[in-house]
Design brief:
The structure is a homodimer of 196-residue chains.
Chain A (H helix, E strand, L loop, with lengths): L2 H11 L3 H10 L4 H19 L6 E9 L3 E9 L2 H4 L2 H17 L11 H17 L4 H19 L5 E2 L2 E5 H12 L4 E9 L5
Antiparallel strand pairs in A: 1-2, 2-5, 3-4
Helix pairs in contact in A: 1-2, 1-3, 2-3, 5-8, 6-7
């Protein structure tokens, strides 16, 4: 079990470390499955108690030409920072970035194990078909998979307004400026007429 | 197999009737599973061919107080209608409605069979525990399940700006006005700090 997975699961769901561990055990390390299971539990709890977990931050939306829509939830630690224009500016930049760069995940931890396996299999077959030397195969495929998923993860993408840095670094600059932790919790992106 | 399910699956994915039927057969009538399977196929196809299915309409977004964000895709038949302000007004109304009423599905067809079964089981146990007469049980539970899901489906909800009519009827009024079919294809709604 990956400590980063546990950490991220807790950030996303607000559950304790024991529950996060248990969920990951039950899903055999499949982050996506664990998250879905927790969400199911979380939703039921929220419905029953009529509660919402308290969490500071901002929901940002961005609409590009009525053809692409983005929602992003960015969390910080206090309402004070949530209202700060450096923070709201970051949220706006992130929503525009997501519209332009179309990531599929926030970070690699969110990629389902089944998806990783599938993609690895595809690259592996391709490399074999291309006659890559057997002793190099694992290393080649590993590099290809890493690159493929990095392109699909928001935090790993080059930031559209400054491609010299990754989105992750851009957020870290704001953490330094504002003195609070900042987490992109989740986002949604819909494009007109796209085939899903 | 439900003809409405086939119809809706085709609307959502743009596939032919044979493919839609096949997907529903393979998923044993589980609409959600069939849709997921088609999406998988659709995505692969789109990635390979670099294609996007042509579809007129508008992506609407709505942001309530930086606390609730909504994206909705509403399709019509022509770009001409997509630019009409009666149509864009409808999209705006729908996005505000979704923010306020928090539906989970567009229509009942989207509810996974597993979820239906689960909810039915819960109402059934509750009715038994309450000592409802055995010969009335099925009818009582059926009514409760129907009501429960109607509250969670956008098209069945009372329209927030005029609760005398359902959202479905409000859309039909616009179909009559504009002379084109109008379909709410999908939506996303995120609220700040909600437990998922």
């Amino acid at each position: 079990m990956d400590i980063e997975q546990i950490k991220r699961l807790r950030e996303l769901t607000g559950v304790g470390i024991t529950d996060a561990k248990k969920a990951l055990e039950e899903s055999k390390g499949d982050f996506d499955k664990a998250l879905a299971a927790m969400r199911k539990k979380g939703l039921t709890k929220a419905e029953k108690r009529g509660e919402r977990e308290a969490r500071a931050g901002v929901i940002g939306t961005y609409n590009h030409d009525s053809r692409i829509g983005v929602i992003v939830e960015v969390n910080c630690e206090t309402d004070f920072v949530a209202r700060n224009e450096i923070f709201t500016g970051l949220v706006k930049d992130l929503s525009m970035h997501i519209a332009a760069s179309a990531p599929l995940y926030v970070s690699e931890d969110e990629i389902p194990a089944s998806e990783k396996k599938k993609i690895k299999g595809e690259f592996s077959e391709k490399a074999k078909a291309e006659g890559k030397p057997a002793d190099m195969l694992d290393k080649i495929v590993e590099g290809q998979v890493k690159k493929y998923f990095a392109e699909k993860c928001l935090l790993e993408q080059p930031f559209v307004k400054n491609p010299d840095i990754k989105v992750d670094e851009y957020i870290k600059e704001h953490i330094a400026k504002l003195g609070e932790n900042i987490i992109v919790r989740r986002f949604e992106r819909l494009a007109l007429g796209e085939v899903l």
